Amino acid sequence: MQHYVKRLAAVMLLALFLTAPVAAKPASLEKCQAINDRIERYTVLRRKGGSAGQMQQWKEQLRASEDQFRRMDCTGHRRKLR
């Protein structure tokens, strides 16, 4: 019985490791810097103002850049990007 429990535990651990999500490799500092520059650019443009259409387009671009920043796991580079 004890041998059965050990084998079952080993199989369960193996299954856990095989099904665990693989951590994505963070993007390089250069790629994160480029995305951060885009975020800053659209932020400045929106602060300066423009037509309603321009503001909406810049807002969409800003949100897309912020999403890309998060998806590429650039949060680890935040201090270096200041």
If you had to describe this structure to a student in words, what would you say it looks like?
This protein is mainly α. It has one domain. Helices cover 71% and strands 0% of the residues. It has helices at residues 2-19, 29-48, 52-71. Helix 2 (29-48) runs antiparallel to helix 3. The longest helix has 20 residues, at 29-48. The model has no long low-confidence stretch (mean pLDDT 81).
What is the secondary structure topology, with strand pairs?
Elements: H1 2-19, H2 29-48, H3 52-71
DSSP strand tally: 0
Total of domains: 1
Mean pLDDT: 81
For the record, give the distance between the C-alpha atoms at the N and C termini, rounded to a whole number. Answer: 60 Å
Stretches where pLDDT is under 50 for at least 5 consecutive residues are none
What is the count of helical runs?
Answer: 3
The biggest sheet, with number of strands, parallel, antiparallel or mixed sense and barrel status, is: none
Helix content: over 70%
* Beta-strand fraction estimate: under 5%
SSE-based structural type: mainly alpha
Order of helices and strands: HHH
**Compute the gyration radius: what is it?**
22 Å
The geometry reads as: elongated
